[in-house]
Amino acid sequence: MYERIRDLREDKDLSQAQVAAYLGCSQRIYSNYERGDVNIPVVILIKLADLHQTSTDYLLNRTNHKAPYPKK
């Protein structure tokens, strides 16, 4: 999961600091998320899915289908 989150960030040419600012956390905390040093809170996981226009299932490696689910 953590490698997928890093790869998505790098694909968009975003720095850890930019993603951290979007999430409302420090760069250090975000770096911990990418390394897998701490569990990612559900709220943050949802924000990451929205940022990368994908599903939380994709971020969690539960599917290889990158497209987000339709919103209700």
Automatic annotation (TrEMBL):
Residue span(s) of domain HTH cro/C1-type: 5-59
UniProt-listed PROSITE patterns: HTH_CROC1 (PS50943)
CDD domains: HTH_XRE
Pfam families, alphabetized: HTH_3
Alphabetical UniProt keywords: DNA-binding
SUPFAM superfamilies for this protein: lambda repressor-like DNA-binding domains (SSF47413)
InterPro entries, per the entry: Cro/C1-type_HTH, Lambda_DNA-bd_dom_sf
Descriptive protein name: Transcriptional regulator
Biological source species: Paenibacillus borealis
